[in-house]
Amino acid sequence: MRARPVAALALAALIGIFAAPGRAPASSATATGVSGVSGASGVSGASGATGGSEVSRPAVRRSITLAWVGDIAFGESYGLPPDGLAVALAPVRSYLRSDLTMGNLETTLANGGTPKCATIDPTDCFNYEAPPIYARELKQAGFDLLNDANNHALDFGLAGRSATLAALHAAGLAYDGLAGQITRLRINGISVAVIGFAPYSWTNNLLDIPQAEQLVRAARREASLVIVIIHAGAEGASEDHVPYSTEYDYGEDRGDSRAFAHGVIDAGASLVIGSGPHVIRGIQRYHDRMIAYSLGNFASWDNLARGGTLSESAILRVTLAPDGEVLAGRWIALKLVGPGLPRYDPSGASTKLVRQLSLEDFGRQRYRIEPNGVIAPGPLG
């Protein structure tokens, strides 16, 4: 990848996410298949006149700013925000705004049904269901796409999953996670494909790396950018490092997230973003592509463990060029407060954490993350 001139980086900083958190230039987005999302029209180039003579301005390089958060998990049996989800997330809504804001949905959106824990020891089983209206409230909070490739997608069986996807579709939210599904979008005139993977046969299977690589190559043939979402790894406060091996939890093979992420990037993925461990993990620079292995939890209500690193959270914002080059990035530190709601953390505790984990796990294969959360797109000096 060719290095970008300093002037170009400065321009990207002005129009991208080096600025204070907020919505990036408006986008035009459409999705094909069973999910869809729509937005405002894109920003076009500009020209002007001074003193009666036309002044040409340098063309702004096309780009997409993405935002990603970790686990969103609400269960009616544990209690729900009394004023609704949109109100509960309102304090972080401005930080969520981007051309494509995504999160991992670990909740069935349905009314009733048979929970998976009905026939399993409830002390070692967790199932989450919230009202279908939560889809509309997630849209109001700023989300555009939700990942349904995770270990809670079938908490209320296939009927519950069908209800969830119907609720998302009705709210105008795109989604991913069905076996063989490639969610296709067009944003700022750039074709984008999103594919969700988890270590299960009923979704795109993270355990089958050759098949995953094949699916990424198929997506890449028709899309400039391929975004891969993974739900992988062991869970808990002690699971904040990315091993060089397969991870296991609750008797399940949770995949080799490092090998998987490297494989799909080698196959053509532009960005890999993840969740699953319920804690933050480091960010790797691999072949000039970004891998954010886990952003921990994003929002819950008395149903996920909290305290220490389990309460550290973030919003990751990344600006990509149509060829997948990282133009800019920002880590927005959050703290989960009360029953598990995200709030901006001026202390930047999770920024310190991700910087340390990235150094320990990836050495020079990492991005430079400044104390204020700005992620330098270039290689380490």
Summarize the topology:
Blueprint: H1 6-15, E1 31-32, E2 48-50, E3 53-55, E4 64-73, H2 85-89, H3 93-96, E5 100-105, E6 108-109, E7 129-130, H4 133-141, E8 145-147, H5 157-170, E9 174-176, E10 183-187, E11 190-198, E12 204-205, H6 209-220, E13 225-231, E14 248-249, E15 252-253, H7 257-266, E16 271-275, E17 283-286, E18 289-292, E19 297-300, E20 312-320, E21 326-337, E22 341-344, H8 349-362, E23 368-369, E24 374-376
Parallel strand pairs: 4-5, 4-19, 5-8, 6-7, 8-9, 11-12, 11-13, 13-16, 16-18
Antiparallel strand pairs: 1-10, 2-3, 4-20, 10-11, 14-15, 17-18, 20-21, 21-22, 21-24, 23-24
Helix pairs in contact: 4-5, 6-7
Q: Notable features of this structure?
A:
single chain; 8 helices; Purple Acid Phosphatase, chain A, domain 2; globular; 381 residues
How would you describe what is shown here?
The protein contains eight helices and 24 strands. It is an alpha/beta fold and 381 residues long. It is globular. The strands form five sheets. Strands 4, 5, 8, 9, 19, 20, 21, 22, 23 and 24 form a ten-stranded mixed beta sheet that branches. Helix 6 packs parallel to helix 7. It has a single domain, classed as Purple Acid Phosphatase, chain A, domain 2, CATH 3.60.21. The model is unreliable at 1-56 (pLDDT under 50). The two termini are 16 Å apart.
